[in-house]
Write a structure and sequence with these properties.
The protein has 438 residues and is an all-alpha fold. The chain has one domain. The protein is 69% helix and 0% strand. Residues 225-367 form the O-antigen ligase-related domain.
Length: 438
């Protein structure tokens, strides 16, 4: 029965981005339905066997902040509180229907993290769960690259017209770039965990034997999968998606060169291969120059995202504690917009600003502390632990978190349920790898 729930969690990771990145109400509702159904099954199975239904205490740094956020959203849609605080509506939320939708998403994420902590509880399951994240990224990369190389072909998902930038099953290229970067980070971590701690023999026949062992092992398949994902990442033409990923990889790699406990002998060579082979050689073939051109052409004069941030700050100042209501940026921001932009902004294109506007500063700081704590735990695991898998996955988790911290400054990736589900999984892996026994 435990295996059934575990594989259901892995299947949800793979399924989540397929219906338009779950960035439609019906798509996110399908994920919520499966999570609620799975959690109900977990309760019934545990009670029938008289087992504990709660995960261990390692889950507290993730479960508690998410639970508090869900309770906060309930407070925002409770009638009558808005009148007490002299709000224009009886609720704290400017748009209770959208806040209710965000509440369901938050509850689903909380219960999903609960299940991950409960069922991903051995070294083998951590490995398989990480592989499912990697597989999800590979499927998205293959699909996006295939469509990108067949420009006249509409998307298989609802025949959506395809653009020159890769989007996969997502609608927005930057969200695909973010999703691929998170999967890439975990994939690189898993590959690092497969490297040998011992050096190769100096004898030629032993070196030849080692080379063939690599070629005939799963390592070569992992490496090819990562190359495919990097190709798709470059094809998104996402400026911050590409630059944030490679900066995060460089930063965590530099940390590992100095502090990684029992470093694999080929760690430096593997990391360098990502920058030399993938970024330069593969990137040259598949258009990294176009990403570079977009970066060079970027200017504040041509961008309106900074104006959205500027106009959203007064909303934070007006409602710094309770916020305007989860999910309400879509309907409340036009009241603060000083003038027309080049397009319609239903999100702030800055997760820090949007969370502060909708949830208020206390909850935003609480969620930020949760993320930074998980990053600290990942770095600590790389330094303190000796189990290669836990160290490698923690490397990937740390790179994924740094990437998300950077990418969230210019985009709204965490508003996508598929990316939020993946990111919560990564935060959970941070704590799982730190506490599981050898």
């Amino acid at each position: 029965m435990n295996k059934f729930f575990f594989y259901c969690l892995c299947s949800l990771i793979i399924y989540a981005p397929i219906p338009l990145g779950a960035n439609r109400i019906w798509a996110s509702s399908s994920i919520e339905f499966f999570v609620f159904l799975l959690f109900f099954g977990h309760l019934m199975a545990s009670l029938s066997k008289r087992q504990n239904i709660f995960p261990n205490s390692d889950a507290i740094p993730v479960i508690i902040p998410l639970g508090i956020t869900a309770a906060w959203l309930v407070l925002q849609i409770t009638p009558g509180i808005g009148s007490i605080l002299e709000r224009p509506f009886s609720t704290l939320s400017f748009d209770p229907s959208l806040t209710h939708i965000m509440l369901l998403k938050t509850l689903a994420l909380t219960l999903f993290a609960w299940l991950v902590f409960y069922y991903v509880n051995t070294r083998d399951l951590v490995y398989k769960f990480s592989l499912s994240i990697m597989l999800s990224g590979l499927l998205q990369a293959l699909y996006a690259s295939w469509l990108n190389l067949n420009l006249d072909m509409p998307s298989l998902i609802f025949d959506i017209p395809y653009s020159t930038a890769a989007v996969g099953s997502f609608i927005y290229k930057n969200q695909l770039a973010n999703y691929l970067a998170l999967c890439l980070a975990i994939g690189i971590g898993v590959l690092i965990s497969q490297l040998s701690v011992n050096g190769s023999s100096v004898q030629v026949r032993h070196k030849v034997r080692d080379i063939f062992q690599v070629l005939l092992s799963s390592k070569i398949l992992m490496r090819l999968s990562l190359i495919i994902m990097i190709i798709a990442l470059i094809l998104t033409r996402s400026r911050m998606g590409n630059s944030a990923f490679f900066f995060a990889l460089a930063a965590i790699s530099l940390f590992s060169f100095f502090f990684y406990n029992r470093k694999p002998k080929n760690l430096r060579l593997l990391i360098l291969s990502f920058f030399i082979l993938d970024l330069i050689l593969v990137g040259t073939i598949f258009g990294v120059e176009k990403v570079k051109e977009r970066l060079l052409e970027t200017s504040l004069a041509s961008e309106t995202r900074d104006e959205v941030v500027r106009d959203a700050i007064p909303m934070i100042l007006d409602y710094p504690v309770f916020g305007s209501g989860g999910g309400s940026f879509y309907s409340s921001f036009p009241q603060y917009q000083t003038g027309p932009y080049s397009g319609f902004y239903d999100h702030a294109h800055n997760d820090y600003i949007q969370f502060s506007v909708e949830l208020g500063l206390p909850i935003t700081l609480l969620l930020g502390a949760m993320v930074l704590y998980c990053l600290f735990i990942s770095l600590k695991t790389m330094v303190k632990r000796k189990t290669p898998l836990y160290q490698g996955v923690s490397f990937g988790c740390a790179a994924a978190i740094v990437h998300m911290l950077l990418h969230s400054t210019v985009d709204f990736s965490l508003q996508s349920p598929a990316i939020a589900l993946l990111f919560i999984s990564i935060l959970s892996l941070c704590l799982i790898c730190a506490k599981l026994k050898r």
